[in-house]
Amino acid sequence: MAFDQMIAAGTVAKVIAAWVGNVAGGSGYGFRRAYEQGQPRRIVMEDHSNFTVGLALKAAAMGLPYLPTFSGLGGDIVRGHPRIRPIDDPFGGPDLLAVGALRPDVAIIHVQRADAQGNAHLWGNLGLTVEAAYAARRTIVICEEVVPEAVIRSDPNRTVIPGFLVSAVVEEPGGALPSSVQGYWRRDFEPFLAYHRTSRTPEGFQAWLREWVLDLPDRPAYLQHMGQAAVARLRVSDRRLAAEANFAP
Amino acid sequence: MAFDQMIAAGTVAKVIAAWVGNVAGGSGYGFRRAYEQGQPRRIVMEDHSNFTVGLALKAAAMGLPYLPTFSGLGGDIVRGHPRIRPIDDPFGGPDLLAVGALRPDVAIIHVQRADAQGNAHLWGNLGLTVEAAYAARRTIVICEEVVPEAVIRSDPNRTVIPGFLVSAVVEEPGGALPSSVQGYWRRDFEPFLAYHRTSRTPEGFQAWLREWVLDLPDRPAYLQHMGQAAVARLRVSDRRLAAEANFAP
Amino acid sequence: MTSRYTRRELMVVAAAREIRDREVVFVGMRLPLLGFGLAKATHAPDAVGLFENGVIRDRPAETFIYTMGDPPNIVGAVACLGLVDVMSLLQQGRVDVGFIGGAEVDPLGNLNTTRTSSSGALTRLPGSGGAGDIASLAGRTVLIMEHEPRRFRERVDYITSPGHFPGRRRGGPATLITTLGVFDLSAGRVRVASLHPGVTPEQVREATGFPITIDDHPPATATPSADELAYIRHADPEGFWTGDSMKSG
Amino acid sequence: MTSRYTRRELMVVAAAREIRDREVVFVGMRLPLLGFGLAKATHAPDAVGLFENGVIRDRPAETFIYTMGDPPNIVGAVACLGLVDVMSLLQQGRVDVGFIGGAEVDPLGNLNTTRTSSSGALTRLPGSGGAGDIASLAGRTVLIMEHEPRRFRERVDYITSPGHFPGRRRGGPATLITTLGVFDLSAGRVRVASLHPGVTPEQVREATGFPITIDDHPPATATPSADELAYIRHADPEGFWTGDSMKSG
Question: What global pTM score does this model have?
Fold first, then answer.
């Protein structure tokens, strides 16, 4: 949905993605208008599958110009693709595809907690978060809580991003809403449905943009606009703690 | 050290490794006798660096015939190597090396805890454990404790090996001794020094083999032979617990 | 369609029957997710489900989820890895069956979820997501579609998820489940396996934009048992996915 | 060597001085580990250390460790990843400096830790470990050696860790620290940077198996301060690494 919002706002020149839509309804109307009609501006689309975009980031994360894969052979995504080309297996096996490295200028990731150096603990859904943080030239970590470094060091296997890769740490509780953060926030599904409805027309989108972005100076204002009741309903207060892990030497 | 012991016992035909020695002293005398003199039998040695052997396993783990790397260029390890060969970058960058997949018949890994399905929690030192478990045709998980599945499920991010990759689960506390297991056992350094001394001669090795392998029917006998005092000294009783991670939805 | 169950509930039952016990299943959202849960609850208690975001579960989430990254889908998972990890397992050949959908299908089982001009104007669809990868790499795939003439095309406009093609390395479309029937695609053409109760061969011919062979007396798709319906309605209590207006791919 | 400090203590101090503040350091065991700790305690408080087993630390372990996988090296780490993860960061170019050792070195800074026939008979050494990777991929490398004629060879028998060679992508040997002095290798030849107190140019010439240029009045290696010695003796209280009989690479 965030893709769609940025595209519809006219801030995007090029999209490199496997899927652009709305988890609530499928189609992203802002993306469709840009792609089909060039409104509010033309976008260049680099289509991927989940694995090929993941491998493109992983290649950059590994410091490699490309990674090989079998995924996509026989399909149209990889045909004439600017970042994917057929290669031989140097060991004589079946042909492969090379997925060229994708090195974002900036990765912005949301985690549960980090110390002031950017060493970040993340749990729950991972997706491509770690690959993006490794691949990017600059990585910004947004966290629910900046914690004392002893918290991070108590569980170094939970540190998915070492701080020396991180350019900035932002403490912004609820910064991922309306998406969920395991143990902190539930997904607010209604805004996904509402955005799906309202973004069907450019006017609807502009109204949404004014209400939820332009008229809200910061995240506290956003939460206030959501309403205390909604925030309270979404905030996780239950506890289902991970089993103990003893690191004593 | 385990490499050296198996080689000296004559059970190894081929070694694929980046380093074979003894953390206490450097040289592995059993390895040297086999390599230099063919005693007790000739071995074939496939030399690697840590990264290339890691990439060989990772390639198999990813279902790929190879992975590219820049590591090793200009050196002798990769020259005429049976599993490593020079390749072009399909995107026109500098030349690379292709490291061919290494698919072990069996991986045997030691973890802190697993459920009866083999879903395994591992923390502390990881090295190449996960790559080996993914790459192997069969994976045997040895654990300090078989735990109820609710323990594993309380922290799915700690499950580094999903059970459907696991052929067998063995509950064998202390099964990694004299090596350490984070939170369970300290490293017993003395046996590394003792083995280094005694394995200097074939006779010394045979005495070690009799005392520590052939004459001990099982692991409880091994622990008993170590002595109660040693076992008590090595067992971790302190607690340095990982900070809480809340998975509540 | 009778009044006792919706066509989508029938499709969930058909999807469940495509899963054999102990299989590793690449699960999508919507109907496949329900089908996986139903299979687990009935004939395939030891099946394991992989989600493209990295989650591995051996039972469905406790509560309804809108997306596979929703917190309830993490709680109780056996593992929560990254996208590249589960895609690597898929590429390794560790996944027996995967479910995918699309906006268009052709007789070779090619699916399009990228863009189409079937209506005259260009329509942009969300893209592959993980579908292209599952189509490329799973041991076999099950396709789920709304059965409409504009969706069943001699040749899809764009092959997002490749069907049968010469040189395919493994897998390919095995079964197509639609709003009208179940079709066998394993031989590289569309053969009726069963028609949903009340559906006639003529209806199917009219709804299929390419010639299709139908035996004289095709069997009827098995109808949901009371237990199966009970399971589905427990898992999707508001009919979000199994109600009357099914959402496409 | 004076009675106030051992030659190895002097080498630790020299190693520490090779680390600049805020640098990312690939740390080995033994002297480099002590050098890293000393640099952190003095002029480089914000340096970060990577270990090839996946550990990332920004301060030394609280207690003595024999291997980098020992439990005390995990406790207090900022991250504990896998081998491939840290090697990927190395390959990406995120590591400023790495420390390596060897049994033999030549004027180009090539190191051999694999096999040699310098004594007439074939001698097998443990192999690369991570040294070949660090030599290939770090921003620069610091070599640490015992200074003996049989180890300083016109051409090493086997290039385990490549030094300077045409077409090198990045990095290469910057400094060589031996039991006799500190040498600048950055220009692709061996130039004396300093001789340890009491060491004469003649001693160095005799101990070096190839011609070496020494300025008329080479400076003396800076001696350890009381604080530096106090740090080293706290970190290696029994002189395991810094006592009189240094172990080779």
Answer: 0.97
